[in-house]
Amino acid sequence: MDDDAEFITRLTGFGLSEKEAQLYLHLLKYGPKTPSPIAKTLKTYREDVHRTLISLIEKGIVRPSLDSPTVYAAVDLDTALDSIVKKHESELREMEVRKLELQELSRLQQFRSYGEVRTFKIIKSIKELVAAALPLLDSMKEEWLVAVPGLATIVASLFGINDAAGEFIQRGGKVRTIVDISYPIIDNVWELLQIGEEVRHIDRHGVMFVAFDRKHSITALNIPESPSLNAPMAALWTDDPAYAEYLAATFEMLWKQSVPAEERIQDLLEQGPPLA
Q1: Which residue among 50, 71, 106 closes a domain?
Q2: What is the CATH classification number for the domain harbouring 84?
Q3: What is the pLDDT of residue 141?
Q4: pLDDT value at residue 75
Q5: What's the pTM?
Q6: What are the tens digits of pLDDT across the range 137-196?
Q7: Residue 112 pLDDT grade (very low, low, confident, very high; cuts 50, 70, 90)
Q8: What is the pLDDT of residue 187?
Q9: What are phi and psi of 221, to 5 degrees?
Q10: 18-30 and 46-59 helices, crossing angle to 10°
Q11: Residues 188-236 pLDDT 10s
């Protein structure tokens, strides 16, 4: 590497572009010049030289003359390097201020990290549904929100979901369930109440979704007609908290419209079982 090339490399290490470094070195070696001879020597366009000179002037390492035509001179090397360092220090201070401002705005906005990859998968049977739900119940810390049709209470009773929900409640968790309560599932609803779930009723609400700690969720796309493990169904499982929060908001709206399970069961018992 020749001396000029090494000097240019060192200058680019100070934050100058290669064009800026070449032009500054040229002025240092050959003294003040107008743009035209610079362009000719560096084998570039006059307009390109003008842009580079303006950039060097902003960095404080080239000075223009006040007479006409304008002549451009390089500032001595020590002064130039000091100027570059001071400019970088000023930029760093500004970036620190902006960093603090953005951190504060982020805290106020409560941004979540969108760099995290969210997972979505389709559940195709009750067996897959149970397999997906049980580990989440075991890991939950706060609240399980459940909006389901009556058939789901039978599935929960048969395949261990109620046991897992009961253990979660004993650990201090909270379970709220909205279900379309009919006469045939009264016993299943009583089981939910006995393990400590808060249960309410809405007629034929036609939805099925669950949200685990408002972080994970399962939403049914179609609902099976039997409680068999192999009964086909389609449901969406995701670990996207934004979607879980949306479902939680929907749940709260339904919860306000619902009535306590005990009240609904009392009405059903007074009416008696439906005629065959």
Answers
A1: 106
A2: 1.10.10.10
A3: 92
A4: 92
A5: 0.57
A6: 889 999 999 999 888 889 888 889 999 999 999 999 999 999 999 988 999 999 999 999
A7: low
A8: 93
A9: -95, -35
A10: 90
A11: 999 999 999 999 998 866 678 999 999 999 998 777 777 888 888 888 9
With respect to residue 22, please indicate whether it lies within any of the assigned structural domains. yes
Structure letter (DSSP) for residue 222 = E
Q: What is the length of the chain?
A: 276
- Higher-confidence residue of 276 and 106: namely 106
CA separation for the pair 252, 258 (Å, rounded) = 10
User: How many Cβ atoms sit within 10 Å of the Cβ of residue 270?
Assistant: 7
φ, ψ of residue 175 in degrees (nearest 5): -125, 125
Look at residues 150, 151, 135, 163 and name the one whose alpha carbon lies nearest to residue 228.
151
Considering the domain architecture, whether residues 39 and 150 belong to the same structural domain is answered as no
Q: What is the CATH number of the domain that holds 128?
A: 3.30.870.10
Q: What is the extent of the structural domain holding 194?
A: 120-271
198, two tokens: 């808060």
Q: Are residues 160 and 208 in the same domain?
A: yes
- Considering 106, 138, 158, which residue would you say is the last residue of a domain? 106
H-helix segments, 60-198: 77-109, 126-139, 151-158, 161-170, 186-194
CA 104 to chain CA centroid, nearest Å: 17
Judge whether 28 lies within some domain.
yes
Beta-strand pair 120-125/232-238:
antiparallel
One domain for residues 84 and 137 = no
The C-alpha atoms of residue 22 and residue 8 are separated, in whole angstroms, by 6
Number of structural domains the chain divides into: 2
Same domain for 95 and 52? Answer: yes
